[in-house]
Amino acid sequence: MTAKAVAAHFGMSLKLLGGVLWGLRSAGIVDSRPGWHGGFRLAASPETISLQAVIAAASGGETPLPLASGGPQEDDTSTGESVDGAAALVAGFWWALDLRVRETLTSFTVADLAAARLLQ
Questions:
Q1: Cα separation values, 32 from 8, 45, 51, 77, 119, Å
Q2: Where are the domains of the chain?
Q3: Least C-beta-crowded within 10 Å: which of 7, 10, 21, 46?
C-alpha cells in the first residue's frame, strides 16, 4: 500500500504516518519501495512479527515496552520507608497486569491480528 492510501484510511497526516513508517522500516518490520508502483510491505512473515515489536518500533524505539514499576517489594527504595499494605497490593496488581500485557503482546503476532480482524 502507499503511504497516501494508509494515511487516508486512518485519517492521519502523511507527516505523522511517515514517522511511524520510518520507525517500522528502521526496525526491519516493513520494506519500502519508491516509485510509481512503490509502497510498503511487510519485511518478514506476519507469523514472525510480534505486536510488541510493532508497538516499540512505531513509538520510536526498538526496545521492548518498559515494565511498570511497583513489582512485589516490601520497601520503597527511594525513601527507605515501609510500603503500606494496600499500596503494595495495588502496586503489585498493576505490575502483574503490565507483565501479562507484555507477555500477550510478545506472543500475539501480526498474523493473529489479521486473523482476528477477518472473524469480525
A1: 18, 15, 20, 47, 29
A2: 1-43, 48-120
A3: 10
User: Is residue 85 classed as helix, strand or coil in its secondary structure?
Assistant: helix
CA distances from 96 to 44, 70, 110 (A): 31, 9, 24
HSE-CB at 89 with a 13 A cutoff on CA atoms is 3
**CATH code at 1-43:** 1.10.10.10
Query: At which residue does the C-alpha cell 527511594 appear?
Result: 78
pLDDT digits (tens, 9 = 90+) for 20-54: 888 999 999 999 888 887 788 899 999 999 999 99
Residue 81: strand, helix, or coil:
coil
The model carries a pTM of 0.65
